[in-house]
Design a protein that fits this description.
177 residues, alpha+beta, 8-stranded antiparallel beta barrel, 18% helix, globular
Length: 177
């Protein structure tokens, strides 16, 4: 009589293990967070404050990240597209769903467990977005060192934050793995 009961328990164990195995086999995603990101400014303008975070998977190039930003728009073309005067500070949010790479004179930066390179969409709140809903005002690449390490050895000091068109800068990293 004990044999059927034992066989039933083994069958239940095997089914549970079979159903759970895909969850156990998934690779862990890397996570990052940062605060007080700023850049000195380049062609498009400067980031006066940027925060955010999320997770990413270098095996699939998928990211789920977002945050908020304030920026001074220096480019007359971008300012006109947003509907503000050049030199205006704007606020909004950003999100990213895709990893990318970025090539500089010193080499190519790709995402790893220490650095995340994102294609981000920026949504301007001020004075009013040119398109309603979830239509990005503009898209730019961005890089965050998840560990605070230098991503641009060509510049003096630690440069652990970069936004395309706004240049290199610093942020307070928070590695979340």
């Amino acid at each position: 009589m004990r044999t059927p009961r034992l066989a039933k328990l083994w069958l239940i164990f095997a089914v549970v293990l079979l159903l759970a195995s895909p969850l156990l086999a998934q690779e862990a995603r890397d996570a990052f967070g940062f605060a007080n990101g700023t850049t000195a400014g380049a062609g498009l303008g400067s980031i006066t404050l940027m925060t955010g975070g999320g997770s990413y998977d270098t095996a699939t190039d998928v990211a789920r990240a977002g945050g908020t930003f304030s920026a001074v728009i220096a480019s007359p073309a971008l300012a006109t597209a947003i509907g503000v005067a050049a030199g205006t500070e704007v606020q909004g949010r950003w999100d990213a769903e895709e990893l990318t790479a970025q090539t500089f004179a010193f080499g190519t930066v790709v995402s790893s467990d220490a650095v995340v390179v994102l294609k981000a969409d920026f949504y301007v709140n001020h004075p009013a977005p040119p398109a309603a809903g979830n239509v990005a005002t503009f898209s730019k690449k961005m890089i965050v060192s998840a560990t605070g390490g230098d991503i641009n050895p060509a510049l003096s000091g630690v440069q652990n934050f970069w936004v395309e068109g706004c240049g290199f800068g610093t942020a307070e990293p928070a590695k979340c793995n």
